[in-house]
Structure formats: structure tokens, C-alpha cells
Amino acid sequence: MQEKLNGLISAEIESLSSLLELLEEQHGYITKEEVFNMEAIIPKIKEISVEVARIEVERRNLTGDRPISEIVIGSSKPELEENYRKIRKLLHSVTLQKDTNELLIKQGLSYTNKMLEIINPSRPTARTYGASGKVRK
Asked: What is the pLDDT of residues 98-115, one digit of tens each?
């Protein structure tokens, strides 16, 4: 079981490394405001994400309800522990890059919306007095 688990973790490390590279590439497109390239990279990111999810499901089927950290600690193989540490670092990096990209996209959209609001402000409707003498919109 430990050999198969180590193989699955190694495959997940490769997939996560590819995902991190794509997210870093996306970050470059976001900072350079290359909209068409940002859109073109999305299917690649989805494809790698599906691959990571497939490997993760396979790993969970192998380990069952036991947490992987428990299996790694009880293991006598140093390679398994090393790969586990690599995958934790890689997951942290992927999460950080994803959050950074999301934040930059949200900031860009907020800026664009503010500029559009300045360029084309909403015109207030004419106010009139109603029968009771109060201002009506």
C-alpha cells in the first residue's frame, strides 16, 4: 500500500507543479492585462485541476478514512515522508498563487467599474412635488 500511495503522491506532485506553472503564467497575463491569453489558459487550468482531483479520489480510495498524515507518520519509508512534505508545500504555493490571481482580477474589475461610472454617471431623475407637498422621485 505504501508503494502505491507514494506513486500516487508523486503523480499528484507532478500535476500540482503543472498547475502552479499555469497559475504563474496566468499571473503574468493578469499583470500585463493580456485578456485573450488569460481566457485561453482557463481550459488548461481546468484540465489539470480535473487530473489532480482524479488522483486525489484514487488516493482517498486507497487510504480510506485514515488521514494521510497518520499513514506517513506510521510509515518506515523516508521517501514517502519527503514526498508528503513536498506536496504540502506545493499545495500551499498553489493556493497562494490562486488567491493572488483572484485578488488581482477583482481589483481590475473594481477599477474598470469605477472608471465606467465616472465616464457614464447615472443621471438622477427629475424630482417633483407630489400632492402632499413632499418631494417625489
From this structure: 999 999 999 999 999 999
